[in-house]
Amino acid sequence: MRILFVLLALFVAMPCACAFAAMPPLLPMEDFFRNPNSAGFSISPDGTRLAFMRPWEHRMNIYVRDIATGDEKRITSATERDIAGYFWKGNDKIVYAQDVGGDENFHVYITDIKGSGHRDLTPFDKVRAGIVDDLEDDPIHMLIDMNHRNPEIFDVYRCNIETGELELVGDNPGNITGWMTDHDGKLRVAFTTDGVNTSFLYRTTENDSFRTLITTNFKETFSPIIFAYDNKLMYVASNLSSDKAVIYTFDPEANTTLDFVFGHDEVDVGSLLHSKKRKVITGVTYTTDKRHYKFFDSDREELQKSIDEFFPGLEAVVSDMDDDERRVIVRTYSDRTRGAYYLFDRKDNSISKLADLSTWIKPEQMSPMTPITYTARDGLTIHGYITLPTGIDSHDLPLVVIPHGGPSARDGWGFDSEAQFLANRGIAVLQVNFRGSTGYGRAFWEAGFKQWGRKMQDDVTDGVLWAVEQGIADKSRLAIYGGSYGGYAALAGATFTPDLYACAVSYVGPSNIFTLLESIPPYWKPFIEMEHEMIGDPSADKALLEAVSPVFHAENIRIPLLVAQGANDVRVNKAESDQIVEAVRKAGKDVVYMVKDNEGHGFHNEENRFDFYRALEEFFRKHLGSR
Questions:
Q1: How confident is the model at residue 15 (pLDDT cuts 50, 70, 90)?
Q2: If 203 and its partner were Cys, which of 122, 208, 432, 461 is the partner (CB 3.0–4.6 Å)?
Q3: Residue 466 located in a structural domain
Q4: What is residue 21's predicted lDDT score, i.e. its pLDDT?
Q5: Three-state DSSP class for 128?
Q6: What is the pLDDT of residue 117?
Q7: Counting beta carbons within 10 angstroms of the beta carbon of residue 157, is it exposed (0 to 12), middle (13 to 18) or buried (19 or more)?
Q8: Which residues of 374-401 are buried (b: 16+ CB within 10 A; e: fewer)?
Q9: Are the C-beta atoms of 332 and 338 separated by less than 8 Å?
Q10: Domain count across the chain
């Protein structure tokens, strides 16, 4: 299990905190949302080549570079859709994923490093495929999962990458929602659900039957992270005896939790660092306001120390290593730059830059992102971040609050293209981890159950009022904007607090919870009872869901509204946006409505991003008086 798909996170976190005395120039919108110079670097197992993503024909494609000679070659030719992610299969092949028009039915492809022999290993219509294990020690096989036999469930297949032959090795009886292998690539763990209870299944060898070890309610966490390198013990994240998830060792044969490894009083911990070469667990990462480390291994601690010395004032993250753990790819970032990729040679203690992600972004022209806390109306502490425009007085500013999607997710510290774009326009940006966000423990997450449009929305509202009380925001120039659940929150803000905001923007956001729950992808159906507990049951909670679905209260929307939607969205169906647009227009109000026919849950093609943010900029300029 080396490294799975190198996914593109083009507009999230990245280095430098420089003072700027005057307001920076108005920068082109495209600078914030264009594709990076290069991104997603990964090193071949033997440490001789690099793979990375770079724009070609305005789409992110895969390139391979020989480290010794510097020679580069583009090995994919995507023109309709970005390559979604990739990984090395041995030293001479690349496996990558791609969907069509945002439909999220990802296919798994393979090519050699010369860019020849491209093949679709999962050539089936309306089927979603993924990687279970790349089987790095097996040169001709890997394990994939896909919902070919039944669209609601995923079976596991051993795929021969030379012939394309698929052998069923994990037959899903109908209730398995996930699979896990050991370090030898053996399928040893499965996870099942009965709708609200999750079971952890285990077998000693692949010749044995799975047996249930632990069953928990979905609100509880008992999550295997990785096998120990003896393939006997496991490391698990659990909150069964605490509010926050902490890490333990676990003996699956005895079905017994053993030693406490690490926990944190403020946040969940569930991520481990490890060394395959030395076969040890080396540390953990966790996020409070920013990313932090706890090392258990002197070698890994020394590596981080060496890297950090090269980048004072920046965050530096190890993103990949070769099998010898000599050559290390490092990604730097901060709140004011997307940063760069570097190649660090541990033997020579030398470092060389591979690429800046966005050479046109100047850190001194960007704005700092500052962690904040405030108290919600019921006394709950809410964490978040505020980005204030550089070079102007931070009082009585127009403000946009951006609730995150999910909602079982959280915002973090780093470079945020939307926040920087709006700050460059003279707008303060508030991002809050309202109740129901993950990472802050079970109680905080559960506090958001059945609180769409209610206490979750109150937390967002209270954050905006906090910014007004602090003198940061001008109460007459407030806006709410978000995507996915954040789009719902924007519609809820316009509907249920219509006098608070000057305008609202919903980006792929649901408006009718009944139709949202009815139109989920088939492979989410095993989780529908959980969704009913978290959001509401359309039958038992009919009155609640009617009360908090903006589409039924569209007459309350009195402020200007912008709605954007992908026609192929499988998570938030286009009908969600159609409904609210029709209802608001029926109430006599105008709506700016943008639909992209070749997009799904969010706009990934560069030209579509440009269209959306151009419209967003004009919308806020008109209704907030932004720069």
A1: very low
A2: 208
A3: yes
A4: 52
A5: coil
A6: 84
A7: buried
A8: bebeeebebbbbbbbbbeeeeeebbbbb
A9: no
A10: 1
The per-residue pLDDT for 7 is 41
CB 112 within 8 A of CB 93: yes
Q: Quote the longest CA-to-CA distance of the chain.
A: 70
Locate tokens 């036999």: which residue?
A: 149
Whichever domain contains 513, its CATH number is: 3.40.50.1820
Catalytic positions, please?
484, 569, 601
Query: Is there a contact between 172 and 155 (Cβ–Cβ < 8 Å)?
Result: yes
Amino acid in the structure at residue 382:
I
Q: Which tokens belong to 239?
A: 């909150």
User: Which amino acid does the sequence have at 435?
Assistant: R
Q: Give 170-222 pLDDT, tens digit per residue.
A: 999 999 999 999 999 999 999 999 999 999 999 999 999 999 999 999 999 99
Q: What is the pLDDT of residues 350-396, one digit of tens each?
A: 999 999 999 999 999 999 999 999 999 999 999 999 999 999 999 99
Q: What is the overall mean pLDDT for the chain? A: 95
Across 119-130, average pLDDT: 97
Instruction: Report the C-alpha gap between 81 and 581 in whole angstroms.
Output: 28
Range of the domain at 418: 367-624
Residues in Cβ contact with 585 at an 8 Å cutoff, skipping those fewer than 6 apart: 591
pLDDT per residue over 240-278, tens digit each?
999 999 999 999 999 999 999 999 999 999 999 999 999
Q: What is the DSSP string of 116-130?
A: ---EESS--TT--EE
Q: Is residue 599 part of a domain?
A: yes
Residues near 207 by beta carbon (within 8 Å), at least 6 away in sequence: none
Q: In this predicted structure, what is the pLDDT of residue 209? A: 95
Is position 470 within any domain? yes
Burial category of 464 from C-beta neighbours within 10 Å (exposed 0-12, middle 13-18, buried 19 and up): buried
Per-residue tokens: 171? 């037959």
Structure tokens at 479: 């806006």
Which token pair is 339? 């940063």
First to last CA, the chain: 49
Name 247's bridge partners: 237, 262
Q: Which helix (H) or strand (E) holds 246?
A: strand 246-251
Tell me the three state secondary structure of residue 614: helix
In the predicted model, is pLDDT for residue 522 greater than 80?
yes
Give residue 317's pLDDT band: very low, low, confident or very high (50, 70, 90). very high
- Asked if 616 and 481 count as a contact pair (C-beta separation under 8 A), the reply is yes
What tokens appear for 198 in the block?
Answer: 């999750």
Q: Is residue 495 helix, strand or coil?
A: helix
**Is residue 41 one of the residues assigned to a domain?**
no
How far is it, in rounded angstroms, from Cα 18 to Cα 16?
Answer: 6
What pLDDT is stored for residue 72 in this prediction? Answer: 97
